[in-house]
Write a structure and sequence with these properties.
Blueprint lengths: L4 H14 L9 H22 L2 H21 L8 H8 L3 H11 L10 H18 L3 E4 L4 E4 L1 H5 L18 H12 L3 H14 L4 H13 L3 H14 L4 H15 L18
Antiparallel strand pairs: 1-2
Helix pairs in contact: 1-2, 3-6, 4-6, 5-6, 8-9, 8-10, 9-10, 10-11, 10-12, 11-12
């Protein structure tokens, strides 16, 4: 809850790899279950936390929830021993320590995912209820405000934020970005081909395809991919960054081989 955007992305990519059907589990049932956990839990959470606007709205909702619970004056119903301990000795440092103890176990085993997710939810609940001010760190600044400043001193109702639209190819895109960061172009292209089938109107899919093809020295094909990305989204950043580069490379004629006269070049004038 208090971590920064870079750490959130690093954790998300790690979970994307752990729960990937080609990595997690040996049976089809395990692969299907892992995929459901990723699409229903991990991916939606990342979509909210990775956006400053959605994260801020989520934080505002948590502030209002905490304010209402404090007004009731009731102790929260906590099942996990570690959350009960945090409620007795609430502190941000203690909260972070407890989260670090539990989070590595969350996706270690399919059978225990819900148990550890529940424990983490209780730790987050205690943190919300026991801290006087809440803030989420971002890459550049922290989004923070007191409950009164958020509510204007009145108990105004704020609707819970709607989750942003999620691409059905999100897993493939994130795996592709992971492979691109490691310069594993062939593996990245496989993920992007799969992403194109799932989400054929996603500009980012074609932009990343162009980036991979450019690094595979296929300038003409990369140019076509960037053009398709920009047709779908004229402001797609990756396509805008590299399209001129591949256009120049595609237009540069290959240097013809040097002609040599006679046997083994003898007799050349």
């Amino acid at each position: 809850m208090t971590t920064d955007a870079a750490h959130i992305r690093k954790k998300f990519l790690k979970l994307a790899k752990i729960l990937h059907p080609d990595v997690f589990g040996r049976t089809e049932e395990e692969k299907e279950t892992a995929t459901k956990y990723f699409s229903k839990m991990v991916s939606p959470a990342y979509q909210v936390l990775n956006s400053d606007r959605d994260r801020g709205e989520y934080l505002a909702t948590l502030r209002m929830f905490a304010q209402k619970q404090k007004q009731k004056g009731e102790a929260p119903p906590l099942k996990s021993e570690i959350a009960q301990k945090l409620y007795r000795i609430p502190h941000e440092i203690t909260y972070n320590q407890f989260v670090e103890q539990v989070s590595p176990k969350q996706y270690a085993n399919l059978d225990s995912i819900l148990e550890y997710t529940s424990t983490l939810s209780e730790l987050n609940l205690v943190y919300v209820l026991t801290q006087n001010s809440l803030s989420f760190s971002t890459g550049s600044s922290a989004a923070s405000a007191s409950p009164n400043s958020q509510m204007g001193g009145n108990e105004q109702q704020t609707a819970a934020p709607k989750p942003p639209a999620q691409s059905p190819a999100l897993r493939n895109l994130n795996m592709a970005e992971l492979f691109i960061s490691k310069k594993q172009w062939t593996e990245a292209l496989k993920e992007l081909i799969g992403a194109e089938k799932l989400d054929p109107n996603n500009a980012k899919v074609y932009a990343l395809k162009g980036l991979v093809q450019m690094n595979q020295n296929a300038a003409a094909i990369a140019k076509a991919s960037f053009q398709k990305a920009l047709k779908l989204d004229p402001k797609e950043p990756t396509a805008m960054k590299y399209i001129n580069q591949v256009t120049t490379a595609a237009q540069t004629p290959a240097k013809p081989p040097e002609k040599k006269g006679g046997l083994f070049g003898w007799g050349k004038k």
